[in-house]
Amino acid sequence: MSDTFTMQSWDERVVSGQEGAPRFAHAHATFAYSGVIEGASICDYLLYYAGDGYEGDNQTAPGFERIEGSVDGRKGSFVIRHEVGYSAHGVRGTFTVIPGSATGELAGLTGHGTVAGASETMNYTFEYTL
Fold first, then answer.
1. Which residues have a Cβ under 8 Å from the Cβ of 73 and sit 6 or more positions away?
2. What is the pLDDT of residues 20-48, one digit of tens each?
3. 3-class DSSP assignment, residue 72
4. Which of 19, 15, 124, 25 is nearest to 80 (CA)?
5. pLDDT tens, 78-108?
């Protein structure tokens, strides 16, 4: 079985700065998970765009995501903190479960993982303890 998540919605708005110049944007997104995590989530990112002329590959985006569903069959919810890099070549990043954020049968959940991909459906890894 493959561990994937698929973007369901993406609403991005510039917070400060102009097109072509360094700027910040806020993105509100929803995702559907399958694999070890089964469920749906709501995520908010703060995106940084360096502007025209930037030669680097990755822009950066911290974010928080609340996932409702199950992990390995146990139901509840939990919050993860993202640190993601993105470019025209795709997304790569890491995430960590926020201590104390898990509810229901997931209470006490800890863990971390990775995300990677270049389409609306991306792969993730998740190492956790319950």
1. none
2. 888 889 999 999 999 999 999 999 999 88
3. coil
4. 124
5. 999 999 988 778 889 999 999 999 999 999 9
